[in-house]
Amino acid sequence: MFSRFIPKPPPLAAKARVYDLKTRLDWGEPALTIIDVRDLNSFNHCHIQGAIRMPLDSLPEQVLSNLELNRDIYIYGESDEKTAEAAAKLREVGFKKVAELIGGLAGWQAVGYPVEAISAVVG
């Protein structure tokens, strides 16, 4: 018998490649959150489509007040080091499913995946 299906993406890992996240998004599983911990100007200039911005200095408090501890989270910052720092902060407060997006935005853009920008208001 031949059956056609979209295979389920691999489980969340502590470090994720950009195509791991893209595969998961393409699979259509909505139970994940993408967090960008870069500064506001960088976020507004360009970010991964669907990402939300949460500043690194208040990250644990913001995430705890907005997401459940069992939520799958993909996180990225200005560098892999900042990404690791942000992920460590979330793990310290009880988040178990946190994936550091290796290469962050630059890696995402390098393979042509979709990004968003927030246009400046002229007035």
Automatic annotation (TrEMBL):
It holds the Pfam family Rhodanese. Residues 28-117 form the Rhodanese domain. It comes from the Bacteria. InterPro entries: GlpE_sulfurtransferase, Rhodanese-like_dom, Rhodanese-like_dom_sf. PANTHER family: FAD-DEPENDENT OXIDOREDUCTASE, PYRIDINE NUCLEOTIDE-DISULPHIDE OXIDOREDUCTASE. This is Rhodanese domain-containing protein. It comes from Planktothrix serta PCC 8927.
